[in-house]
Amino acid sequence: MYVILAIPRLFKYVTFESAVKILEKKTLKWSIPDSFNDPFEFKSPLEYGFEWDEMAEVALQRFATILTQIEEPILAQGNPRAPIIIEGRKKWKGRNPSDVHALFESGFKQLVQTFKEKSAPDAKIWLEMKQTDLVLCLSSVHNHILMWSHYADSHRGAVLEFRPIIELRTATLFARPVVYSLEVPVAATLEEYVGFLTGEKPQPDTSNAMMKSIYTKSSAWAYENEWRILDKKRPDDEGSFAYREFHPQELVTVYLGCRMPPENRKRIIDMVATWEAPVSLFQMRDERIRFELTAEPIS
What we know:
The protein is α+β, with helices and mostly antiparallel strands. The protein has one domain (10-297). It has eight helices and twelve strands. The strands form four sheets. Strands 1-4-10-11-12 form a five-stranded mixed β-sheet, sandwiched between helices. Strands 3-8-5 form a three-stranded antiparallel β-sheet. Strands 2-9 form a two-stranded antiparallel sheet. It is elongated, with a radius of gyration of 27 Å. It starts with 9 loop residues before the first strand and ends with a strand.
């Protein structure tokens, strides 16, 4: 089930050649994650914030402490290991933790190995998804100097504004904002898993791990103000991208780069003039005494 968020204005930065193709064919290019220019994109959502071997030793030490301490531990309601702790404390309370460590070391290693093996198929599924999922990347800003430089051919291209249409259930209705972070999101932390194995915390919830991975990028890219839309490859889609049609009414504004040659500018204006729905046209101007772009309407 999809949740439709409040969608801001959404923009696509493109070269002049791409703008012409979009206007001619009424399609947008969607790409698979493996083709993105950032190798940190779509990091596996099933990565954990620890090494499995590391977790075995940390969890065992904590387990030995809880089993032998005099104070009653606070256990999580519903944790399947909590009854084991309660029963074990009848025998081990007040005894030496090292005795527990030696007795349960082999069992703990085997338990952690089981968790590790169960996570392996999930990682394979994620790698396959990076080849079969398609992503349309948009931005919530239209006048960012770096975006114009990087994605619109050094200001010689254009920016197209799209608006979602509820009645037509257009794809932009399902756009979600990217979260920017200094750290890669992980399915679970060492503390969460150790707490689960020792009865102190509920089982880590990894159900949202995939969404975190899809919609999280490095803070280095925060200036892009990116929003993403997901789709699946269709049987006739081949390669690392596919073209999806959009409704003519979705396109509401076209911004022309401040370096766009006059002949290219005229061609875009002529194409917009025959568009099936009203489209506003703007010319981007570089400000004389500020590092800013200003959009001036083209009548």
